[in-house]
Amino acid sequence: MSHANDLLVEKVKVLHWNAQGLRSKFNALLHHANTSSLDVIMIQETFLTRDRKLPGYCTFYKHGPNGYSGGLLTAVRDGIPVRVIQSPEIGAGHDILTVALQTARGPVIFHNVYVREPHEIDFKALVEHAAGTPTAIGGDFNAHHVSWGARRTDNRGTMLVEALDESGLFTLMNDGTPTHERGGVLDLTLLTNEMAANATWSLNPALQSDHTAIEFTLLDFPITRPVFHPKWKLEGADWGKFQENIAQLLVDSTPACSLDEEYERLTWIIERAADLTFEATKPPIERKFLWRYYPEVRQAHPLLNQLNARGRTGRSPEHDAEIAEARANYVRVTNDPRRSTCPPQLDKCGKRSEPYKAQTLNSHDTPTLREKPTSWSKTSPTAALTLNSQQKR
Known about the structure:
Blueprint: E1 7-9, E2 12-18, H1 26-36, E3 40-44, E4 57-62, E5 72-77, E6 82-84, E7 95-103, E8 106-114, H2 123-128, E9 135-140, H3 155-167, E10 170-172, E11 187-192, H4 193-196, E12 199-208, E13 212-218, E14 223-224, E15 232-233, H5 239-252, H6 259-277, E16 279-280, H7 295-311, H8 317-334, H9 388-392
Parallel strand pairs: 2-3, 8-9
Antiparallel strand pairs: 1-14, 2-13, 3-5, 4-5, 6-7, 7-8, 9-11, 10-11, 12-13, 15-16
């Protein structure tokens, strides 16, 4: 059964950059990721020998043959569904790391690529891997061709252009601006035509090595919040009653015509029968994943802390009003009810004053049962089942 979820990411913001050694630039990358709210980060030439966690991101590494050459890092912001998939075989000596993000429009593939010189590369295999799936390719190709602004054309650039022309699947996003300090255009961004039709591309001078970082934004691939499936207390459950409820609901609903609709119908029947039979556990509270990635939360969080600290030295009606407003704003932007009550404040004598009254959070007080869509009802449905579980609550 489909679930309506708020958008987690309205548009996917991606950065790829040849860092020429990430160890000394790690903090700069983390700061830029926080301030720019990057969703996907692809780094080439990390020069690392072991994994290093990027706070707030799910990180995937592919290290080079030693700590002084190559190496890839792909980082995806926490909360975004992602998995590593098999990369295409593009030839020995090259680095490629492939992940798939699950968006509201289906999976999107990201290839993080570093092409080494002078090894041969199979660009055709890389391009054909995208057949039928929205794909973004970003990295250091070490290829030259006048079509993307290079001052000369080499064999590798010719091979890439031929592979792109033959497939017709990709659009080159580069605008001819040099991406290397010597004036070369070595870092390329390739997007499948559907993605490129509504995407933005730009250089970002905030991150510099001998290469300039590239950022692009996918505007047509929103990402929804993960679905939290219901849970029930099954200890001492009445499984006989559960089977009876399923049987009754099967009688009361009409089989669907398509496989997808029938899957939704059966899923609804099982979940509804569980609601009627078992006591539900408290659903999880959805919170924003890391406060520093949201500008409005970055403002609300320190303000509330400052007001709480000031309240320890004394209180006034004006301060009470300020902290109540700051707390309400914090709960609104973070979905975090832990700050809905004010901790006891200290007056000037050090004695604790009366705590604030807790704001009532009734979003999960009474779980709502699933209603059966009218399209599944028969012309003469049987009587509705008694909601035993609701009486228990």
